[in-house]
């Protein structure tokens, strides 16, 4: 089998390995193997093919991999659903809310609520901030600008 074909098979195996790990390490070696295949196609001796592979692997690993990882690991806002989506929302107090209970409207829905800290009293018509949802009860505190 020709040297270039061996390099291409090695590159293919490394690409398949990358699909299993998704670490962007094996893909750099696969690209370096393709550089070795290119060197083989140019008729370079096997020792120089290995040198070209090693240099390319180092270059891709130190130069290209950090850039690729930075682009793939952008901060994507997490989609919050269910009660998690209500945390941080404004609530309108419908019935007096204290540490024992009350009612608030959050995004058009009426929720039972308790204040935090429990000594805080929120009167009807005031605004509150949802801290968390505890079962079917919204834990709220006084809304401050």
Automatic annotation (TrEMBL):
Predominant localisation class: membrane
Q: Per its UniProt record, what InterPro entries does this chain match?
A: Membrane_assoc_protease, NA-bd_OB-fold, NfeD-like_C
Tell me yes or no: is NAD among this UniProt entry's keywords.
Answer: no
**Location in the cell:** Membrane
Record membrane topology:
Multi-pass membrane protein
Transmembrane ranges? 7-40, 46-64
Pfam families, A to Z: NfeD (PF01957)
Per the database entry, which stretches of residues form a coiled coil? none
Question: What is the native source organism of this protein?
Answer: Frankia canadensis
Q: Which UniProt keywords apply?
A: Membrane, Transmembrane, Transmembrane helix
- Magnesium as UniProt keyword: no
* Gene Ontology cellular component list: plasma membrane
Annotated ranges, domain NfeD-like C-terminal: 84-141
What protein is this chain from?
A: NfeD-like C-terminal domain-containing protein
């Amino acid at each position: 089998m020709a040297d270039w074909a061996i390099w291409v098979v090695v590159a293919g195996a490394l690409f398949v390995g990358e699909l299993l790990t998704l670490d962007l390490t094996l893909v750099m070696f696969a690209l370096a193997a393709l550089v070795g295949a290119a060197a083989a196609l140019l008729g370079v001796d096997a020792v120089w093919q290995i040198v070209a592979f090693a240099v390319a692997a180092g270059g891709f690993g130190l130069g290209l991999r950090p850039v690729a990882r930075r682009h793939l690991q952008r901060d994507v806002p997490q989609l919050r659903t269910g009660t998690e989506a209500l945390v941080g929302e404004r609530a309108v107090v419908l019935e007096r809310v204290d540490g024992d209970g009350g009612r608030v409207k959050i995004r058009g829905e009426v929720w039972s609520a308790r204040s935090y800290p429990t000594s805080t009293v929120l009167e009807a018509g005031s605004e509150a901030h949802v801290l968390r949802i505890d079962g079917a009860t919204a834990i709220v505190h006084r809304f401050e600008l």
